Amino acid sequence: MERVGVVIGGGNIVRGAKLSEYGFDRVSADHMGMLATVINCLAMQDALEKQGIFTRVMSAIRMEALAEYYIRRRAVRHLEKSRIVLFAAGTGNPYFTTDSAATLRAIETGCDIIMKATNVDGIYDKDPNKHKDAVRYDQITYTEAINRQLKVMDTSAFALCRENDIPILVFDMNEPGNLVKAARGEKIGTLVTSGEGAVAHVG
Fold first, then answer.
1. CATH tag, 1-111
2. Which residues pair with residue 123 across a beta bridge?
3. pLDDT digits (tens, 9 = 90+) for 7-22
């Protein structure tokens, strides 16, 4: 059975960076954002366990009444026992995004691929919500994504994946069946690797 770890953001509740724009202290704002991810992980745990799926929520911030404190070896052991591990509270540090947290946990637990489920159906050369002529890539390299300043993931996350050669699949989480397709290795979204150069979507 495949091992699955999940990192969930908290943007539906609060974004630290956004709060700081309204005058909140950035460190405090980011801590609020981390707590929002814990709420989402607990909600996901409840939904999965209602389906008979064994899970563990592991938090980068100590809160033993709600979740296990993240320890890499313990997380790996849970994954080996086919439990889905929900990684909460980001990295536990301010100024780091959910993308960076997901990449770090993927490296630490030996993941084969990072699947980024988001609100767009892949990586585009420019914002498809603002430009009708935006072109989606079927495949692109880490270096090209960084050099072209493509914003679907932050630069530090792309760089970490490049250094550790972990592929990234970016796909639309709102399309029914896409998560299953991604897990089966079907061709959807955009794949980011160290391989050949950018391949634009045709059709």
1. 3.40.1160.10
2. 137
3. 999 999 999 989 999 9
